[in-house]
Amino acid sequence: MRRNRDELAKMRRAGRVVAEMHEVTRATARPGVTTASIDQAAREVLERRGAKSNFLNYGNPPFPAVICTSLNSMIVHGIPGPQVLEEGDILSIDCGAIIEGYHGDAAYTMAIGEVSADAKRLLEVTEASLFAGIDQMKVGNRLHEIGRAVQSVAEAAGFSVVREYVGHAIGTAMHEQPQVPNYWPGSPGPTMKAGNVFAVEPMVNLGRAATRVLDDQWSVVTADGSLSAHFEHTIAVTDDGPQIFTIP
Ligand code: MG
Ligand code: MG
């Protein structure tokens, strides 16, 4: 789908709300705080900006919060609740917002206090892999070059890329086709055009790539218990190069 100028402007506004959710959640998360209270802080941003949540009541069973909070070996889709953050944790926070029917979606992983050298490197490499992917978002380039770039950065550091969960086109729904794998899937995929908008979201594990879903039917964890990080932006392909919507 190619979005017109008016649609892109709405998506940029949704992206700014998501960026503000990032700011507020980052300022809230610290040792001793529950993940439910981080969700509450994010709800207040949505309310203040007149935005709707694209996470709340999503799927089946309906997701019960406006953000996902995924701790340590949890990769994505963690449900905020009474869990208390501790010094040394890493916490992935995924946020989304809808403005006038248009969606934004972005995630980051943060250190809670001082974390291990391994954890720190995992965060740096995963964020670097996202930006390597974004660098491929040029008019005329093929979509799967994004995943090839993500994978090469993550694997060069000795980490592995999750296969079962991927990025996606985004617009009037959060998850639109085509998918955006974080690895080379064996074919170059569609050609990127001006007005295409994608959520690119590498999930990188310190250990092996395999995943497992917990009994709550949402929380996805690493099968080997290793740490995992997740960074995501919503980005438009434009004639002037990639434009990241989910930044301030
Ligand atoms: Mg997301
Ligand atoms: Mg996403």
What labels would you give this structure?
5-stranded antiparallel beta sheet; 4 helices; Creatine Amidinohydrolase; alpha+beta; 26% strand; 248 residues; binds magnesium ion
Brief digest:
The chain is built from 4 helices and 14 strands.
Question: How would you describe the overall organization of this protein?
Answer:
The chain has a 5-stranded antiparallel β-sheet with strand order 7-6-8-13-14. It is of the alpha+beta class and 248 residues long. A hairpin with a 6-residue loop joins strand 10 and strand 11. Helices cover 28% and strands 26% of the residues. The chain has one domain (5-244): Creatine Amidinohydrolase (Alpha-Beta Complex). The longest helix is centred in the N-terminal third of the chain and has 24 residues, at 5-28.
**Residue share in helix:** 25-40%
State the shape: globular
Give the uncertain stretches in residue-range form.
Answer: none
Backbone CA Rg: 17 Å
List the quaternary state of the chains.
Answer: single chain
In terms of topology, how is this protein built?
Elements: H1 5-28, H2 35-49, E1 67-71, E2 74-76, E3 90-99, E4 102-111, H3 117-134, H4 145-156, E5 160-161, E6 167-169, E7 176-180, E8 197-200, E9 203-205, E10 211-213, E11 220-222, E12 228-230, E13 233-238, E14 241-244
Bound molecules: magnesium ion (2 copies).
The site of one magnesium ion (MG) has 5 residues, from loops.
